[in-house]
Structure formats: C-alpha cells, structure tokens
Amino acid sequence: MIKIIKCTFCNGTGKDPFDLLSAISKCIVCNGTGRIDVEEPVKKCVFCSETGRNPLGSRISCIVCGGKGYNHCEGNKNCVQCKGTGKSSDGLPCTKCGGKGMI
Ligand SMILES: [Zn+2]
Ligand SMILES: [Zn+2]
Ligand SMILES: [Zn+2]
C-alpha cells in the first residue's frame, strides 16, 4: 500500500521552500508535485519532528526521511538506544534504528 501525503517540505506548494535557486524552482522532495508517497506502514519522522527539515541546521532536507516528514517503518517499539528520539548523543541519526525511533 502506498500512502499519498501532502509534501511536508514545501507544504504542498511544489516550490522550493528556501528559494535556493530561484523563486520558481521546484521542491526537491516532491519534484514540484506538492505530493509525496510513502509505503505503508507510515510513521511520522521523529528525527525532524515531521518537518522534513534537517534538524542539524542548514537548509537541506532531513537525512532520515529525505524531507518527506514521514518514514516507511515496520517497527512498533521505541528504539532502546535512542529512546524513540531517533537521535544519537552527537545529534546524528541513531545507528540502531536509523533515525526512525522505532524498531
Ligand atoms: Zn514538496
Ligand atoms: Zn525526517
Ligand atoms: Zn534509535
């Protein structure tokens, strides 16, 4: 099952939210469609708090969800290593769950 979601990164506008290249450049996550698809089961991305933005700063997409704000994740238990936050102590994605927070 594929779930279609409004693109988190551009909020469904299809435009690059940061105007990195120009005001009319396409969103890099949804390629300008304003919609993204994620394979079920879908879980909110804990690493970027569902924003699609990289929490480490800089104007790039989240390295865990690729800017979608959601992840395909089969897990249903909080990761013991990061306690469900998806982050390791250095701020990078947890090595056990890959930043998804669940395993
Ligand atoms: Zn988009
Ligand atoms: Zn994310
Ligand atoms: Zn983890």
Describe this structure in words.
The chain is mostly beta strands and 103 residues long. Helix content is 0%, strand content 16%. The protein has strands spanning 2-6, 35-39, 42-44, 70-72. The strands form two sheets. It has a two-stranded antiparallel ribbon with strand order 1-2. Strands 3-4 form a two-stranded antiparallel sheet. The model has no long low-confidence stretch (mean pLDDT 92). One zinc ion binds at residues 79, 81-82, 86, 94, 96-97, 101. The site of one zinc ion (ZN) has 8 residues, from loops.
SSE layout and pairing:
Elements: E1 2-6, E2 35-39, E3 42-44, E4 70-72
Antiparallel strand pairs: 1-2, 3-4
Bound molecules: zinc ion (ZN) (3 copies).
What attributes does this structure have?
103 residues; mainly beta; two-stranded antiparallel sheet; two-stranded antiparallel ribbon; 16% strand; binds zinc ion
Strand content: 15-25%
What structural class is derived from the secondary structure elements? Answer: mainly beta
Cofactors, ions and other ligands in the entry: zinc ion
Q: Please give the radius of gyration in angstroms.
A: 14 Å
Outline of this structure?
With 103 residues, the protein is an all-beta fold. The chain contains no helices and four strands.
